[in-house]
Amino acid sequence: MADKNFKVKSGLQVPSLTTAGPVTTDSAGNVTSSATLPITQGGTGQTTAGNALNALLPLQTSQDNKFLQTNGVSTQWTIPQQQTSTDGTLGYKIYSGTVTPSSPVTGDIWIDQTTGNGIQLVRWRKTIASTTTTLTGLDDNNLTLSYTAGNEQVYINGVLITRGQDYTATNGTSISLTQAVEAGDTVEIFGNPIFSVTDTYTQSQSNSLYVSKSGFDAAGKNKIINGDFSVWQRGTSFTASSGYTADRFTFDKGGPWTTTPTISRQTFTPGSAPVAGYESQYFYRWSASTAGSGQTYNSILYQKIEDVRAFAGQTITVSAWVKTDAPRNFAFQLLRDYGSGGSNLEVITTGPTLTTTTSWVRYSQTFNVASLSGKTVGDNSAIWIILTAQNLNVAQTYDVWGVQAELGSVATSFSTSTGSKQGELAACQRYFIRYEKTGGNQTYFASGNVISTTRSMISLPLPVNMRVSPSISRSPGVSIYNNGSNFSLSSLSVYQLAQNILNLDGNVSSGLTNNTPSMLSLTANGDYLDFSAEL
To answer: Fold for domain 432-532?
Structure first.
């Protein structure tokens, strides 16, 4: 037979092959068959996909929650880094659940799954009970499957499977497998579902509650300069119908009132200032000793905030501490002055009536300021913050302190515009500067040069840059000192303003020595020279 071709016409039957399946031979040449192909012959020795995979993997006994890792030569089960999680007990790197971990170590992370706290990472783990291609619902720890599509990871028996090829995940609550998992398989799904946050503010609510730190508000929240009444360059007592008093503040008694009020600087008794922790020195007092008649309105005080664009289209809150000699009614009012060549003066709104007491109380009012759409803004525009009394033709006294105008719908703790005494003085001097002789010998300041027998050009360095070239007012005792003598001024005007250098043109009737030095002089106590760039 070795010399003959071997042919089988109708099938070959071998008595020793009794089982359907792969045919193998041993080293002696014996032919056998079996239902499965053993691992030594290139098979798995198993009849199902799950069992076949388990047969090829390293032994899984006591290897719970570990992942397959290779060292380049062989594979083994290893502890995962920042993957394993448990509910309230010590995990490897991440805790997940509603119970605070009892013994975490440095570097561990706890994902609090308590309702309302939000979930940033979810581990869904389930041991399969029966063959299925759908993963959904509760896992073995009663955690509902939830994920953000495209950000999930699916592991079967520790092996990461491929999105779009091995499974489909689209709706955030279920996953469809391409190949079914069987009883005993372990499925783990890591996801980061969208979480809800409670007790939040909307953007508009936040905008109304918190102070912006950009644009016009960057320098300080309070747009009222000298709100603590610390600066009084013009004096400390005024009896008049209207005009400036404490720096940046003015008043108007209101119509042809037959009584003239007195505005004065008052000093707090130490420890009596209305705000704990803010020991202010002075407050503002407006007082009318007689009732009089003819009064049609009464602006106790007001301040013009530079540029009508201030607060446009925003919510603002105006506040102040006020006390009176008896219960009185007043209101806060806002006006917009569009300046020279601009739109007409506009009353934005008047707040509701507020009733005072004889003790310091802080009052506030919120205003919604309209945009400037359709308006024309001219030179020297401003927004006016007014405290207006509503009891007219009455003998009364108002004490005021801590005036503040700020963005938002809440009156926050008081602060000055600049945060320091020197800063407040400098802010005031942008609008008004007074040089005054208060004692001692004759005061000389500002040097210049005589250019004729009647004229001297004088240069005066100012402490700050003023808003615009200022107007001048002076007492009669201001003179030009030249060659040992004082010469009364017939006129003094601004020749030029270059940043903070003010060049003045002084004129006298005669007597100056040409081409010699000169100075301005304040001769007697109370002599003053004022420069005003007020709005």
So the answer is: Immunoglobulin-like (2.60.40)
| SS3 track for 348-402 | EEECCCEECCCCCEEEEEEEECCCCCCCCCCECCEEEEEEEECCCCCCEEEEEEE
- Domain locations in the chain as residue ranges: 1-57, 115-191, 217-429, 432-532
Record: fold of 217-429: Jelly Rolls (2.60.120)
Distances (CA, A) of 451 to 5, 296, 502, 513, 515: 140, 53, 18, 8, 6
For residue 277, the model assigns a pLDDT of 73
User: How many CB atoms neighbour CB 11 within 10 A?
Assistant: 5
Return the closest-CA partner of residue 474 out of 440, 441, 515, 445. Answer: 445
Q: Residue 119's Cα: distance from chain center in Å?
A: 27
Where in 278-340 does DSSP place strands (E)? 282-288, 299-306, 315-324, 329-337
Mean pLDDT score of the chain: 87
Q: How confident is the model at residue 19 (pLDDT cuts 50, 70, 90)?
A: low
d(CA 457, CA 506): 6
* C-alpha to C-alpha distance for 332 and 328, rounded to whole angstroms: 14
Report which secondary-structure segment, H or E, holds 108: none
> Do 217-429 and 432-532 share a fold?
no
Q: What pLDDT score was predicted for residue 89?
A: 45
Q: pLDDT tens digit string along 90-102?
A: 445 566 666 777 7
- Type of residue numbered 290: T
Query: For the ranges 147-151, 177-181, 227-231, which has the lowest average pLDDT?
Result: 147-151
CB within 8 Å of 462: residues ≥ 6 apart: 429, 433, 500, 501, 502, 531
